[in-house]
């Protein structure tokens, strides 16, 4: 009976290990930073040594190693449904989607999703340059397609999140996914892209980072940005 019990415990423990293991090749990305500032006088370097983050996505946990949040629970990346991603939820509610991801629903007021254990909200001005950073997650290799990153910015000022369908009418930038630092660690190579803040009245707006890995396979991150 003791041997049988020990064997059962070993099988359960082994299954638990395999069920929690996620191969690196299956990792997917997210917006690690919404407002990345390069070091003054330095080159465009997306690594932690090349600058600092001054604005984050909703409820983005601080003090995590860059590119590590795919192994957290819940993981950071949110994949919209395959069947009709253009009508899926634009931001994760931890329930919907092919991969639910972390909670990025809009807080009331939006400032409640920032500060403390979370990163600060992005504060910017019309005409400013915002640079967004993301981890490569093994999808910036030579044999990988250079998937598109959409930056969508709602025109609804101080309002609830608009639908994904409406957000697609407000695409303000398209960035190459494989704009990354060089390096051997394909999982955690730092990548990013920059764009100009378009004309908007002063207020708080939904900004969405949206990346297409394969056809109808979209991953999103949502942030509130305050335009002054």
From TrEMBL:
The keyword Signal applies. Keywords: Signal. Residues 1-27 form the signal peptide. Residues 82-118 are annotated as: Disordered. PANTHER family: CHITIN-BINDING TYPE-4 DOMAIN-CONTAINING PROTEIN. This is Lytic polysaccharide monooxygenase. The lineage of its organism: Eukaryota, Fungi, Fungi incertae sedis, Mucoromycota, Mortierellomycotina.
């Amino acid at each position: 009976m003791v041997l049988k019990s020990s064997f059962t415990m070993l099988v359960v423990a082994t299954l638990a290990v395999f069920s929690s293991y996620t191969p690196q090749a299956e990792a997917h990305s997210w917006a690690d930073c919404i407002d990345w500032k390069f070091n003054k006088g330095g080159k465009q370097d997306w690594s932690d040594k090349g600058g600092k983050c001054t604005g984050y996505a909703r409820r983005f946990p601080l003090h995590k190693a860059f590119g590590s949040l795919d192994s957290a629970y819940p993981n950071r990346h949110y994949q919209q449904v395959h069947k009709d991603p253009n009508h899926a939820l634009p931001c994760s509610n931890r329930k919907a989607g092919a991969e639910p991801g972390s909670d990025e629903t809009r807080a009331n007021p939006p400032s409640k999703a920032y500060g403390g254990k979370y990163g600060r909200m992005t504060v910017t001005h019309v005409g400013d340059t915002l640079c967004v950073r993301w981890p490569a997650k093994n999808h910036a290799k030579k044999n990988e397609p250079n998937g598109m990153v959409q930056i969508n910015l709602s025109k609804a000022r101080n309002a609830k999140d608009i639908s994904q369908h409406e957000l697609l009418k407000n695409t303000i930038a398209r960035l190459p996914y494989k704009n990354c630092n060089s390096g051997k660690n394909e999982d955690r190579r730092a990548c990013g892209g920059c764009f100009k803040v378009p004309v908007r009245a002063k207020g708080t707006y939904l900004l969405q980072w949206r990346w297409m890995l394969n056809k109808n396979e979209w991953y999103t991150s949502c942030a509130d940005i305050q335009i002054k």
